[in-house]
Design brief:
By secondary structure, the chain is of the alpha+beta class. The relative contact order is 0.07.
């Protein structure tokens, strides 16, 4: 055997060091295959994987802004495949292949994933190296928590880049180093499609409710994968066959391919159109992941209202350029009330309101409910303002930080429905920014006279004082339309109340706050005294008690004259108002705060101590009449005992899911294959002694095949033992002896007792255990997932035990005659 040292042990899936020899199964003659260039079929395999992976990468386009993700994803895929092919050509081990992948990732990551930050758009720097490192680890979190379309942070394209590279490396290594060893095995071909399939699923899970060309991509992916799986396992089988046989196989393959393509397109495409779920039921991770920014971690903006009117009244907060007369600068919209404060609802309760703050890029998404008015281009220069809430006009469509704040653009969070923006790291003196925004058009009362309020879901308000509910019913009078009732409440508050910030210069004291006690005080003292904080809060609570969605907005209302280029905003310009949405128009503003500050002297500003008359409360829709109620037993036990049951924390469920899914993917197939092997062994042990002895040999050969050794499909037992002995010299003697003993038992024509068959089974199982123990740990694990149940040619052609014995008797009788 030229070229191969007889002392060399050839392990399954390996070649002797210093050579590229492979064992010719039929001639037992080693042939040498150079690692480079690759066989033609390997290039086809790589091309198929690239196309399928590219279809999967297109799914990221639903969540990302622009087409830059294609450069990152396809570039990473191509680089990963290049690393895999180079690993094969240079015969690199797993460690060196991994290190090469990391090196290529950092060398080309700046140009592909962060070109806008890279030096000269291609060279890496400290910012790009840090960005792609963060993006590779935490990019998935930004993908599922930030507002789409994603254009920030700058490292957001790292996720498709690293996903494409990983799939490219693994798929290329499998295609050029693993699949060619046994290309006829369909399961190996299917494994090669795992990477593109995972990439396709990742694009779906990290995408949005609106998919990107879902039907076209799905049909194309399935069609290419099915055609390749139908062609690849038998691509090289007919090379040594007769020409006529090859022609027949080729004709059948062409017909089968055409039929498969037609069925895949017609059935798959029709099913995709007919059975496709609606977009709102599409499962994507961003719908179940909580956004990282929680407004409830910060004080309620409305709680600090009096700070502006008392401590910062004359402080120059910021300079605004580009305002027009009547413009209001908004800070935050609050739609959640708990009896103590109006707050911006948190992400766990955010519905159509104010809690869904997400990271955005330079271009901000617009609200769903708006009637566009005029556009604004406003510049804000911060001087004395210090908070996280960004002063803005209307609904911004673009926000660009300048100056020293430019480096903190990744800290911006924005809520499109409320028009409120925050900078989580805070905004203060020296910061400035520009914004382009659209104001809400102000419809006339005539246009809204018969218009219903919009069906906007807001967080529920709780602990509304009864006096507020009663006054709401009193103030609306005979009005029945939404606009009529809201205007009646607004007018009543403006004409019967008085304005006071509680300053020493005010004619009447006014307590700060807008909790339930302060709301009750507002309506129980005569006359009503408060400022925008109390009146806006009261108006919103009264509107909500009537079933109208309302929110409190806090901001500034500086005086701007026509033609004035800029205005200095001070603390005394702070204000608050209420917004209620109307169907087809948007959020309409109401200003219930009175202008009158001088309280008549004959009025007593102190709260009355005498009891107030009882006012019958309007019935609630969720209460039943007493006559409809039935007696029910009341549990007087401690409520604490009811909650003492076992409550599994949420992190336990997540941990079980993260650990359980991979374990299940490993254990379930392993149990199924192990059960099939046990059934195979049991079936082969049954029957007469000669059949059981033949089954022992078949079981041993199948075990060798599962361990990765090359076993001929049709050969005698002695030939099979010789071929396996070349690959595993340590078992050559045992295999040869077992083959001879089995042939003698099977073809001798003698009755074989169970003891002889059991002995053969014990010897074959011992040899199989020895061969398995000679392999490494990973090879043994792979063998657990392989299943082979083909019988040898001799076993398939051998006569049954009864027929063999009858033939032997007939032969002896004929000889005697």
């Amino acid at each position: 055997m030229s070229g191969v040292d007889e002392r060399t042990t050839v392990r399954p899936g390996r070649v002797p060091a210093g050579s590229a020899a492979d064992v010719d199964v039929q001639g037992i003659v080693p042939t040498f295959v150079a690692p480079w260039p690759l066989p033609g079929r390997s290039w086809i395999d790589l091309a198929v994987v690239f196309v399928l992976a590219a279809l999967g990468l297109l799914g990221f386009g639903a969540a990302l802004s622009g087409t830059g993700f294609l450069l990152a994803g396809l570039g990473g895929l191509a680089l990963g495949m290049a690393v895999g092919v180079a690993s094969h050509a240079l015969r690199l081990n797993a460690l060196l292949t991994g290190l090469s992948t990391v090196l290529v990732f950092y060398v080309f990551g700046s140009a592909l994933a962060m070109p806008s930050v890279a030096t000269f758009a291609v060279l890496p720097n400290l910012r790009t190296l840090g960005g792609i490192s963060i993006g590779a680890v935490f990019g998935w979190k930004d993908f599922v928590t930030l507002q789409t379309p994603l254009s920030a942070p700058a490292y957001i394209m790292t996720l498709p880049y690293v996903a494409g590279m990983l799939v490219g490396v693994v798929s290329a290594v499998l295609a050029v180093r693993w699949l060619p060893r046994r290309p006829q095995v369909a399961v190996r071909c299917a494994v090669l499609l795992v990477g593109p399939t995972v990439l396709y699923a990742l694009g779906v899970l990290l995408g949005t409710q609106t998919p990107f060309l879902a039907a076209v991509r799905g049909i194309a992916f399935a069609l290419i994968a099915l055609l390749w799986l139908g062609w690849r396992p038998g691509a090289g089988r007919g090379e040594n066959a007769a020409a006529s046989t090859t022609a027949v196989l080729r004709r059948k393959k062409i017909i089968g391919t055409a039929v498969l393509a037609a069925v895949a397109v017609v059935v798959g495409g029709g099913a995709a159109v007919v059975a496709s779920p609606p977009t709102d039921s599409r499962f994507v991770l961003r719908e179940v992941v909580t956004p990282p920014f929680d407004p409830l971690e910060y004080p309620s903006p409305l709680a600090g209202f009096r700070e502006y009117t008392k401590d910062l009244a004359e402080t120059k907060l910021f300079t605004a350029t580009g305002l027009k007369p009547g413009d209001r600068i908004r800070l935050a919209a609050m739609d959640s009330y708990d009896g103590r404060l109006w707050t911006v609802s948190g992400p766990s309760t955010a519905t159509d309101g104010s809690g869904a703050f997400e990271l955005v890029g330079d271009h901000l998404p617009g609200p769903k409910l708006i009637t566009a008015g005029s556009d604004r281009r406003v510049s804000i220069d911060i001087t004395g303002y210090d908070d996280i809430w960004v002063p803005s006009v209307g609904y911004p469509s673009a926000l660009t930080l300048d100056g020293k704040a430019a480096e903190r653009s990744e800290d911006i969070r924005y809520n499109a429905e409320s028009g409120a923006a925050v900078i989580t790291s805070g905004i203060g003196a020296g910061d400035d920014y520009e914004e382009r925004s659209t104001t809400q058009a102000v419809p006339s009362d005539t246009a809204l006279a018969t218009t219903p309020t919009a069906a906007v879901e807001l967080p529920p308000v709780t602990n509304i004082p009864d006096i507020v509910v009663a006054k709401a019913s009193e103030f609306v009078g005979t009005e029945t339309t939404p606009m009529g009732q809201l205007r009646a409440i607004e007018q009543k508050l403006r004409t019967t109340g008085f304005l006071s910030h509680g300053l020493a210069s005010d004619s009447s004291p006014s307590r700060a706050g807008h909790g339930a006690d302060r709301m009750s005080e507002l309506f129980t003292r005569t006359p009503m005294v408060g400022d925008e904080e109390q009146y806006a809060s009261a108006f919103a609570l009264m509107a909500r008690s009537l079933g109208y969605p309302a929110r409190v907005v806090m901001g500034f209302a500086p005086e701007v004259t026509e033609g004035q280029s800029s205005v200095q905003v001070v603390g005394d310009d702070v204000t608050a108002w209420v917004e209620v949405p109307f169907e087809g128009y948007g959020w309409v503003a109401f200003s219930p705060t009175p202008d009158e500050t001088e309280i008549p002297q004959d009025q007593d500003p102190k709260p009355k101590t005498e009891p107030q008359p009882q006012v019958r409360q309007p019935p609630r829709s969720d209460n039943l009449d007493d006559s409809l109620l039935t007696e029910a037993s009341i549990d007087d036990g401690d409520d604490k005992d009811k909650n003492d049951g076992l409550v599994i924390p949420e992190w336990v469920w997540w941990l079980a899911l993260i650990v359980g899914v991979p374990v299940s993917l490993y254990v379930i197939p392993l149990l199924a294959i192990s059960g099939a092997k046990r059934r195979r062994t049991k079936r082969r042990r049954e029957g007469s002694g000669d059949r059981s002895a033949a089954g022992a040999w078949d079981e041993l050969i199948d075990r060798y095949a599962e361990l990765g050794y090359t076993v001929p499909a049709a050969a005698t037992r002695s030939t099979t033992a010789s071929m396996l002995g070349v690959q595993e010299p340590e078992g050559a003697t045992t295999l040869t002896a077992l083959a001879g003993t089995t042939d003698d038992v099977v073809f001798s024509g003698r009755d074989v007792d169970d003891t002889t068959a059991d002995e053969l089974w014990q010897r074959s199982e011992a040899e199989a255990s020895r061969a398995q123990g000679a392999l490494g740990w990973f090879a043994r694990q792979r063998s657990r997932f392989r299943y082979r149940a083909k019988r040898s040619l001799v076993s398939r052609l051998q006569p049954s035990g009864a027929l063999a014995r009858r033939a032997a008797r007939d032969q002896r009788a004929a000889g005697g005659r």
